[in-house]
Design a protein that fits this description.
It is a single chain. It contains two helices and twelve strands. By secondary structure, the chain is of the alpha+beta class. The strands form three sheets. The chain has a six-stranded antiparallel β-sheet with strand order 9-2-1-10-11-12. Strand 11 and strand 12 (181-185) form a beta hairpin. It is globular, with a radius of gyration of 20 Å.
Length: 189
């Protein structure tokens, strides 16, 4: 009888762990499949950590938001806080900063896209009246041997990231482009 209880408990734990892993993978895949595609110009970021595998660090123009550009009521808490940045498509097909708010907006213009970012809420976190915003798309893992090639291309300011953005504002990198041509496409799974 005791063995059956342990066996049943083990099976339940294994199913819960598998379910959590599946949910994480499915959330990533859902954003890639159904998210709105936007293209952002990347900016080179230095340095590179060789101990974490083959990846490139990506910076974006929308990663620096002026303190005077953010509307709404700033949260009183310290640490990481939410910020919502709205982008609009430019004539060149790249998306650029349109506005930012401490609260999720429901009144964005048709065709614009709102990204959910995080920034630090400390007096020392603001440099030159600019918030450093992260969207979860600042590090991109690549197949073996691609990292240094993409970094070199970034030095030419010719690499764009195609970002899939969910309705909630969550972002995933869908692809990298070099001079407008597809460089690498992210598989959904």
């Amino acid at each position: 009888m005791k063995i059956n209880r342990f066996l049943l408990a083990g099976v339940v734990v294994a199913l819960l762990q598998s379910g959590v892993l599946y949910a994480m993978v499915e959330k990533h895949a859902m954003v890639l499949r159904h998210g709105t595609r936007i293209t952002l110009a990347t900016e080179p970021v230095d340095p590179r950590d060789l101990l974490r595998g083959e990846y490139v660090r990506l910076g974006y123009g929308i990663s620096s938001v002026g303190t005077d550009k953010v509307t709404g009521n700033k949260p009183e808490t310290t640490g990481l806080i939410d910020i919502y940045v709205t982008v609009k498509e430019g004539a060149d097909g790249r998306w650029n900063f349109a506005s930012a708010s401490w609260q999720k907006r429901t009144d964005i213009a048709a065709g614009d896209v709102q990204l959910h970012g995080r920034t630090l809420n400390h007096s020392y976190a603001v440099t030159n009246d600019v918030y450093a915003v992260q969207y979860g798309v600042e590090r991109y893992y690549l197949p073996e041997g691609w990292g240094q090639t993409v970094e070199k291309m970034q030095g030419e300011h010719a690499v764009d990231a195609v970002i899939a953005v969910s309705k909630a504002g969550d972002a995933q990198i869908s692809a990298l482009k070099y001079n407008g041509r597809l460089l690498y496409q992210e598989p959904a799974y």
